[in-house]
Amino acid sequence: MAVMPHASHTTRRARWPFALLAVVMTLPLLAAPAVAQGDPYGADPHRLVPFADTVQRIYSSGTDRWEVWICRVPGPTVTMNLSAVVDDLNAIITPYYLWLSRSRYTPVFTAGGQVTSNDVVPAVLNNESFQMPGCESAVETATTGGSEGALIVVAADFDEGYATGGAFCPEEPFTGCVNTYPQNARRAVVGAAAVTTFAPGTEPSWSSVAHELGHGLNWAHSYGGLTKIAGTTDIDTYDNPMDLMSGGARTRTPVAALAYDRYAAGWIDPSQVDIHTTGSATYRLAAIGTSGTQMLVLPLEEGHFYTLGTRRLTSYDSRLPRAGVEVYEVDQRRTACQLPAVWPTTWPCFATLLRIAQEPAVEGVGRTVHVLGIDDELDLGSFSVRVDAADSTSFTVIVTDDPTPAGFVDDDGNPHEKDIEAIAALGITVGCNPPLNDRFCPSRTVTRAEMAAFLIRAIGQESNLSPYIGLFPDVPNGVWYAPYVERLYTLGITEGFDDGTYRPNTQVNRAQMAAFLVRAFDHSDVLVTPTGVFDDVDPGAWYAPFAEAIYRLDITRGCSTNPLAYCPFGPVRRDHMASFLARALGLA
Question: Cβ distance 371 to 242 under 8 Å?
Answer without folding.
Answer: yes
